[in-house]
Amino acid sequence: MSPLSLVRRVPHAARSLPHALLCLLLSACGAGFDPLALLVDEATPVFRQSAIAATMPASAQPGLFFVAGSTGGAGNLSGGGNQARFNFPIGIAVDGVGNRYVADWQNHVIRKVSADGSVSTLAGAMSTPGAADGTGTAARFNYPQSIAIDRAGTLYVADTNNQTIRKITPQGVVTTIAGRVGVDGSTDGRGNAARFSYPQGIAVDVAGTVLVSDTYNHTVRTISPGGVVGTLAGSAGNFGVLDGVRSAARFSNPQGLVTDAARNIYVADAGNGVLRKVTPAGIVTTLAGSLANYGLKDGTGAAAGFEGLSNLAIDGAGILYGADQYARRIRRITPQGVVTTLPVNALSVSHPQVAMPLGIAVDPTGTLSVTGQYGVHVITGGTTLKTLAGKELERGMVDGNGAKARFGSLQGVTSDASGNWYVVDTPHHMIRKITPAGVVSQLAGNGKPGGVDGTGSGASFNYPRGIVADALGNLFVADTFNSRIRKITPAGVVTTIAGAGSSSGSTDGPGNIARFFEPEAIAIDASRNLYVADTGNHTVRKITVAGVVSTLAGSPGKYGSDDGTGAAARFLKPPAIAVDPSGNVVLSQPAYGTIRKITPGGVVTTLAGRVLETGALDGAGDAARFFNPQGLAADNAGNVYVADTGNNTIRRITPSGQVSTVAGVPGLVGIRTGALPGSLAQPMALAMSGASTLAVINENAVLRLVLPK
Length: 709
What we know:
Elements: H1 3-8, H2 12-15, H3 19-27, E1 47-48, E2 63-69, E3 79-80, E4 89-94, E5 100-104, E6 109-113, E7 118-123, E8 134-135, E9 144-149, E10 155-159, E11 164-168, E12 173-178, E13 189-190, E14 199-204, E15 210-214, E16 219-223, E17 228-233, E18 244-245, E19 254-259, E20 265-269, E21 274-278, E22 283-288, E23 299-300, E24 309-314, E25 320-324, E26 329-333, E27 338-341, E28 360-362, E29 368-371, E30 375-380, E31 384-390, E32 398-401, E33 410-415, E34 421-425, E35 430-434, E36 439-444, E37 454-455, E38 466-469, E39 475-479, E40 484-488, E41 493-499, E42 509-510, E43 521-524, E44 530-534, E45 539-543, E46 548-553, E47 564-565, E48 577-579, E49 585-589, E50 594-598, E51 603-608, E52 619-620, E53 629-634, E54 640-644, E55 649-653, E56 658-663, E57 685-688, E58 693-697, E59 701-706
Parallel strand pairs: 1-32
Antiparallel strand pairs: 2-59, 3-7, 4-5, 5-6, 6-7, 8-12, 9-10, 10-11, 11-12, 13-17, 14-15, 15-16, 16-17, 18-22, 19-20, 20-21, 21-22, 23-27, 24-25, 25-26, 26-27, 28-29, 29-30, 30-31, 32-36, 33-34, 34-35, 35-36, 37-41, 38-39, 39-40, 40-41, 42-46, 43-44, 44-45, 45-46, 47-51, 48-49, 49-50, 50-51, ...
């Protein structure tokens, strides 16, 4: 489920918050917030597709290769078409020759998308918020949300979190024309004497006046060509839905706005769910929609309804187009207030899911440009949607071959001796199988949470996360929310070998007596002993072949980063675990940025990284730096591989503790296959598959990494 879907389930008042702020609030939720619980809407349909063709065979040459799923989602890659990646590109403007300019909100940059779909960065530094003026990458923005273009090709940006309005020349020179960085308010005046409060919409009229939706002030502001800021309509700090003249009118969180040839302004009054019109004299009327008709309703004037109108575009004939975000539709509004819905279904399985039309623009030919969460799309004829650049995140529960398969959110992966891979599709409560040819099918679980033992779809899991295979082809699963360890035979028969779904705890003993607390990862040694990252207990547990559970290291309920022996050691919610050929257990500590090692005797040391110091440095032992390290795997030579999630890289730690980067580039986000280093998007879990190949998963894609010698 997207942040948008979550908002649907809260009262109307929350929906009136600006969409960008909602996303930011959700992304900033604390450690107790589990986004996995929000990833799958119960109404999401389940589709099945048969295998058609094999995927790319494994290569003997080092490289990163696609296996199954979708490579779409957030990123910051430049390049051609679907090679590029965006991260919530909210604002969009188009010039007369087909170039599109995008306010790439979470990347803090302004991007240029050429008519052929190639993407470059015009201004700002990727993933680096700031407030600097300058040229190109020397400039800095802080969650820029809206963008407009004048007849000379000059861009204007609502730099929302900086509380400023910025100007960009065609050569990429950025200056601040109004507002003061980090200081909000409602003051009129010239240049940096003016104040704004989280401005979210921007336009420029035929006379060169810049128009601003000053969202948290609930007003519409103007900036003259000379840089003087005034308030055209609304009253700062006073919200409502009143029509009237200038300060007598009331808005509620106005967002996108546009202007016509007569200099009338049209405002998406998001908090009220209506479309407002403001004349050059400041006379405010309601053109379409009403609080009483909130929702996806076509009609004229107050009989129409919107479900999240946020951004607007206007064509040469004065026809308005609105991004109705919560309805996931594009709305068409005539100058007379007649509202219709374009027949573009953004949820069609046959094309990328534009789950939230964020920004919208129209060129002189009438072609619409729409931004989704992670892509830029064009709509021709009002009906046909095509992706121009980027690639939307495509979740689902689709069996099939390679790129036809879809997953919910992958959290674990393992490989058997026959070359089959098994992935844990956590929000679908399911274990999926991938053959060497890339064909994805369901092995166990039925898509619904539960704790029933059984065969195939007759069994159920509850947000499982970790998985490992033994030499006999049996799988063992850390069934996280059931606080159990489950076994799956090659025939798909599921049994519980330790723990009880009815209760959690930290008890050692035989399987049916033992208790776990939300275990997230599992590994196996050469003697078929299992090791469990008992995440909720902050401990590492051992399960013998006879099924007896003991605590190898850590103390239940006590967390930290202390090295030591057995119960004297401390961990903090370890999410991943592996075993090397010598029987040492290795686990990751994302919160501390370290990789820890436990000997068979329970002696715990820090193998690599330094506590609470993040980064992307290669080096020996505590000279290395990681950023949110997650998944682990160990090869037969004793090397440990780390999914360094925050750095979007795969790291290798030799038995002596030397750390190097084998795939991905720190700072580059997005999947790009081929020769190493390639690029990755938040790799989550790893598994060895043969002597020199790693299975790598992110949320929705399964990749093969052939390691360098």
